[in-house]
Amino acid sequence: MRQDGISVIICCYNSAKRIEPTLRHLAAQEVDSAINWEIILVDNNSSDNTSEEAKRISKELGLDSRFKLVQEPEPGLSSARHRGYSEAKYQIALMVDDDNSLSKNYLNTVVDTFKSDCSVGMVGGLGIPVTENNPPTWFNKYAYCFATGDQSESENAELLYGAGLALKLDVLDLLKKHGFQSLLTDRIGNSLISGGDTELCLAYRMAGYRLKYLRNISFEHHLPKERINWKYLQRLFFGFGMSKARIDLYTSALGGRPKPAEGTLPLWLDRLIYLLGGTLRNLPLILGARLFQFEGNDKLLEATAKLGHIKGLLDSRTDYKKMVSHVYKLKNDVQHGR
After folding, report:
1. How far apart are CA 280 and CA 303, in angstroms?
2. Residues 285, 181: Cα–Cα separation, whole Å
3. Helix (H) or strand (E) holding 327
4. Burial per residue of 70-100, b for 16 or more beta-carbon CB atoms within 10 angstroms, e otherwise
5. Whose CA is closest to 36, among 5, 67, 64, 2?
6. CA-to-CA distance for 128 and 150, rounded, in angstroms?
């Protein structure tokens, strides 16, 4: 039985050189003395000395009484996060990336927000990019791809970043009780496939809970120069496209569309043919990008995402019909309490 309080979960993969600022900002949190909180660091198959460094720094900062280190051998961000959820002592989980530095009021404000409104299932803050060099001209337009910038025009958000995301674990327990299983693995090693946080946001909304975005809490997101380049952004868009093949099932169900039925073609193939039509129109651009960078070209990013979507459908084809049924059944069961 979880207690009142907040469990900060940091998922790490080879984070020895990044983890110190993250822990220092947690040590600087201005938390009401009545609030119970802990730090759970999940070491997800690191090959460096992440665990040793984290333990050393937490002790130096006086966090050792709150600090818990766990190992998660199964690779992937989703695996690491769910291990963190299972280890959490408290009812609120706060996901902090190993390159995030939280504002001093983050934990306090999150706890107060959940206490004041029981309809809120998730809370997110403003991501502030911190770059090593001046970012390219296209960066502000695509800052959201790096979990930075405004997440919504109002407090009521449709989606929230996984970085700095706080969630009520009893809602996750409810979803799991009704059969929720993630269709996405999120990032594994150097792969840039993502979408696990988006999937969870949509599942929480299926369960009838609101997502709240607060500009008065923030986190600095430290972005190394290796990530702020056009090729990296293209890889991100390809990963977004791959995830979209499965995320679309949630948006379809949540949007009230009837469960699709197979016609003369399998569902995945019908969707694939539709996407191929748009991709063929962009074929000269895609082929040209092999010779020229086309930096800042929005259409190239859209075409790259479509290629990722096609690959996502091909990868999912064996289980696609089963996944459709899973998502629609989850929506029905969680909304009718079955």
Report:
1. 9
2. 38
3. helix 320-336
4. bebeebbbbbbbbbbbebbebbbbbbbbbbb
5. 5
6. 9
DSSP code string of 226-268: TTSSHHHHHHHHHHHHHHHHHHHHHHHHHTTPPPP---SS-HH
Domains of the chain, CATH where assigned: 3-228 (3.90.550.10), 234-336 (no CATH)
CA–CA distance, 74 with 183 (Å, rounded to integer): 16
Backbone angles phi, psi at 312, to 5 degrees: -60, -40
Question: In degrees rounded to 5, what are phi and psi of residue 196?
Answer: -60, -35
Tokens 């995830």 belong to which residue?
Answer: 243
**Residue 318: DSSP 8-state:** T
Q: How confident is the model at residue 20 (pLDDT cuts 50, 70, 90)?
A: very high
How far apart, in Å, are the Cα atoms of 178 and each of 44, 93, 197, 250, 327? 28, 20, 19, 15, 11
- Per residue in 114-133, pLDDT tens? 999 999 999 999 999 999 98
Residues 107/37, Cβ–Cβ less than 8 Å:
yes
Q: Write down the pTM of the prediction.
A: 0.93
Which two tokens mark 215? 């500009």
User: For residues 263 and 242, what is the distance between their CA atoms, to the nearest angstrom?
Assistant: 24
Distances (CA, A) of 210 to 66, 122, 248: 30, 7, 20
Q: Which residues pair with 219 in a beta bridge?
A: 102, 127
Angle between the N-to-C axes of helices 320-336 and 196-206, in degrees from 0 to 180, rounded to the nearest 10: 40
Joined tokens for residue 83: 């291990």
